[in-house]
Design brief:
single chain; 251 residues; alpha/beta; 10 helices; 19% strand; globular
Length: 251
């Protein structure tokens, strides 16, 4: 496989899942870890992605202050975010993780709404505080920060979540599959997101359809842990039928 083709595949994986591991890329490309490491380093040099320990993240995943940055599938993510806004009610306690689609959602939340947010995501906390005109109360669920996802993990953050019962949770998801469930690349992040599900009355996934029918190493929860799945597709699209069959609301 030529280098340019490898680079395109790497960028596609990073754009879809936000964060990927070098070991996974090595398997997908059927090349050595050294080759993948060189490819990722070169893509980082040209600002196509951000190299992190053991993998890579998309440029649009964590950076929220520079609104000029390209966001992969932005039109789809904006459409998803607009659908998601309809699920909010005044007075809701909202638990929300990070991720590029959730960040697009946060940008569109009406400032006049009376909402309380809890988030373990540093970029999300900053995004929610960005407008001084909003009426939101924002609580950061602190802990050890993952360098790749900028999400708090570990026992202290999970303990905080055990004392919360959120009305609604917007769970950032990298991988969704009917059989394999909701999965992650990182064990600590998987445990954190599992705690978010336990701490919520209702769990929503805002996700582009390209993430559907994909899975990774660590299971967060089975697919029935989701109450509502929001994609850019028409809710009646046949590709969503197997998720609908699991009694998941489709929006």
């Amino acid at each position: 496989m030529e280098k340019l083709e490898r680079h395109q595949i790497i960028l596609n994986e990073v754009h879809i899942h936000n964060r990927v591991l070098l070991t996974d890329l090595s398997g997908i490309l059927n090349v050595s870890m050294d080759t993948v490491r060189r490819d990722v380093k070169e893509l980082d040099k040209f600002n196509k992605l951000k190299k992190v320990h053991g993998g890579a993240v998309s440029n649009g995943f964590n950076i929220i202050t520079d609104r000029s940055r390209d966001i992969y599938e932005q039109a789809s993510k904006t459409k998803i975010a607009q659908k998601g806004i309809s699920l909010l009610k005044n007075g809701d306690v909202v638990l929300i993780s990070g991720g590029s689609t959730n960040l697009e959602f946060a940008k569109l939340i009406p400032k006049r709404m009376d909402l309380t947010f809890f988030t373990p995501s540093l970029p999300m906390a900053i995004e929610l505080l960005d407008s001084i005109s909003s009426r939101y109360d924002v609580f950061f669920v602190g802990g050890k920060l993952s360098r790749g996802s900028q999400l708090a993990t570990g026992g202290s953050s999970i303990n905080i979540l055990s004392e919360i019962t959120a009305d609604i949770c917007f769970l950032g998801t990298g991988y969704l599959d009917v059989d394999k469930g909701i999965t992650e690349t990182d064990w600590e992040i998987a445990q954190m997101k599992k705690a978010m599900i336990y701490a919520s009355k209702r769990v929503i996934a805002l996700t582009i359809s390209k993430k559907l029918n994909t899975f990774n190493r660590y299971k967060i929860y089975n697919i029935k842990g989701l109450d509502t799945l929001v994609t850019e597709l028409d809710p009646d699209n046949v590709s969503l039928d197997k998720y609908r069959a699991q009694n998941i609301d489709i929006l």
